[in-house]
From TrEMBL:
Pfam families assigned to the protein according to its UniProt record, in alphabetical order: HXXSHH
Organism, as annotated: Enhygromyxa salina
Protein name as it appears in the record: Tat (Twin-arginine translocation) pathway signal sequence domain protein
Length: 481
């Protein structure tokens, strides 16, 4: 059996999660340091646990289609299946990820089921990470998913002590489906999201409000609170040169993250602590995506130091119906994204036609692609002791609730993965599933990603039990390296 089929070797005494305990009970998690692990336990990149980061977009993409307003050209998907090249992504939203083409796996013809949620947005958002129908059919905006989401299961089964995975949210904390709506503990049990990136950082670091306020007021870093232990650790003869480099990168990342958080949310830091900063609870697209980037710093640090094996970042409410993204041609604000996705100035098909709405939709796609690239850049910056990069140890999924707008179909859901999860997944390709037919295979994709992140069944095989049991749930072996 290949090593990717096995459980992590270091789930017990010699796990890679090490802490420095500092003033006031602050505990700073450290990355794996080979000098602190017994020699017989070392196994190169096997020591880096696979992880999954989920990045959610609503309302579909600007794909080729015929609508009541006319034919729309393809502006999202690569031009041809096969190897991803600058030529095959030119002119498409995916070209924003050109720096990472060799790490991407773009998958078309991912099809979800049309469950009776009584609303296309509920159908897409609530089954997106659960592959389950509604608890009660036909509830529309009051719907709840009838199962656990994959991000939560990864955390429940693989995180230290079953710690919850991180669920992060950027955008107005209200709207269709109530704002945060994609992560579930179980049937009808929706998770609350960490909205303020500073609160997400506080949660991960174990800081109480007084400690966090003190750090901000003094313009110091949490690193300073563990200075004595840090100096002792750095001077240890057990640490290799790789250990020193990785430790420095890790601590620099903490400080950079803190600078990002305190600089991105205005002058009044107390307003941030009280949840009054406009950035993460805004309807201005640039502010929403800037807050998402701050969340991504938290996510990158969280998987780098072993705090969690799973992070979910949701942008916007169930239909992202209040965010106004930027027109890339003139920097003006568009109509709200949901209007743009319907091509009309309404939440249905009754409003005035928005000129060039399909082009505006593509501009939103590009801004999401740019934000996803920001995450990939962060993960690539982490160099591991064996010269691998953190991005290669896990899988990052940029997914969409719907295939397109205005139909908001559950067919051909945009699916872009980055990172091979320690050699588990193919990379550098654009692939089509099921020869383009309408087979429901969404649960199969989620079982594949869960297996890539390290989930295994009782026989130590890939999972095939996630999602509605009425559909095929076996992993998509054609996506495996």
């Amino acid at each position: 059996m290949n090593k990717i089929n096995k459980r992590p070797k270091h789930s017990g005494k010699f796990g890679r999660r090490t802490f420095l305990a500092g003033a006031g009970g602050v505990a700073v998690g450290l990355p794996f340091l080979e000098g602190l692990v017994p020699r017989e336990a070392r196994a190169g990149s096997d020591l880096v646990d696979p992880f999954a980061i989920f990045f959610r977009q609503a309302n579909g993409v600007a794909a080729q289609q015929s609508t009541a307003l006319g034919d729309e050209p393809e502006r999202f998907w690569p031009t041809t299946h096969g190897p991803l090249t600058p030529e095959t992504v030119a002119g498409r939203a995916i070209e924003e990820l050109s720096d990472h083409l060799d790490r991407l796996l773009v998958v078309s013809n991912v099809n979800a089921n049309y469950f009776d949620y009584a609303d296309g947005h509920a159908n897409g958002a609530l089954q997106g990470l659960t592959a389950q129908g509604p608890v009660v059919p036909g509830q529309g905006g009051d719907s709840e998913a009838n199962g656990e989401s994959l991000d939560h299961r990864i955390g429940r089964e693989l995180n230290p002590d079953g710690r919850d995975s991180l669920f992060l949210y950027s955008g107005k904390n209200s709207g269709w489906l109530g704002g945060p709506c994609v992560s579930y503990r179980g049937p009808g049990n929706r998770r609350a999201a960490l909205h303020n990136p500073l609160l997400a950082y506080q949660t991960m670091m174990g800081l109480d409000s007084n400690q966090l306020e003190e750090l901000i007021a003094r313009q110091t870093s949490v690193n300073d609170m563990v200075r004595d232990q840090l100096q002792s650790l750095v001077s240890s003869p057990k640490l290799s040169s790789n250990d020193h480099q990785r430790l420095q990168l890790h601590l620099d990342s903490i400080r950079d993250l803190e600078n990002n958080l305190t600089c991105s949310f205005g002058v009044d830091e107390l307003a941030v602590l009280e949840g009054l900063s406009p950035g993460y609870d805004s309807d201005i697209g640039d502010e929403v995506l800037t807050a998402a980037m701050a969340h991504m710093h938290v996510a990158a640090l969280a998987v780098a130091c072993g705090y969690t094996r799973s992070v979910c970042l949701q942008i916007g409410s169930g239909n992202d119906g209040s965010t106004r993204y930027r027109n890339l041609d003139d920097n003006s604000l568009m109509e709200n994204y949901h209007y743009v996705s319907h091509r009309r100035a309404s939440h249905d098909n009754s409003g005035d036609v928005i000129a060039n709405a399909d082009l505006l939709h593509s501009m939103v796609d590009r801004q999401f692609a740019q934000t996803f690239k920001y995450l990939l850049d962060l993960l690539e910056a982490y160099e591991l002791p064996d010269a691998a990069r953190l991005i290669d140890c896990g899988v990052c999924l940029w997914y969409n609730d719907n295939g397109n707008g205005p139909a908001h179909t559950s067919r051909n859901l945009p699916t872009v993965m980055a990172g091979g999860a320690n050699g588990f997944l193919k990379q550098g390709l654009y692939m089509e599933l099921n020869n383009g037919d309408d087979t429901v295979n969404h649960a199969r994709l989620l079982n594949t990603i869960g297996s890539a992140a390290g989930l295994r069944d009782a026989n130590d095989e890939f999972i095939s039990d996630f999602g509605d049991p009425n559909f095929d749930r076996t992993p998509l072996l054609e996506l495996l390296a």
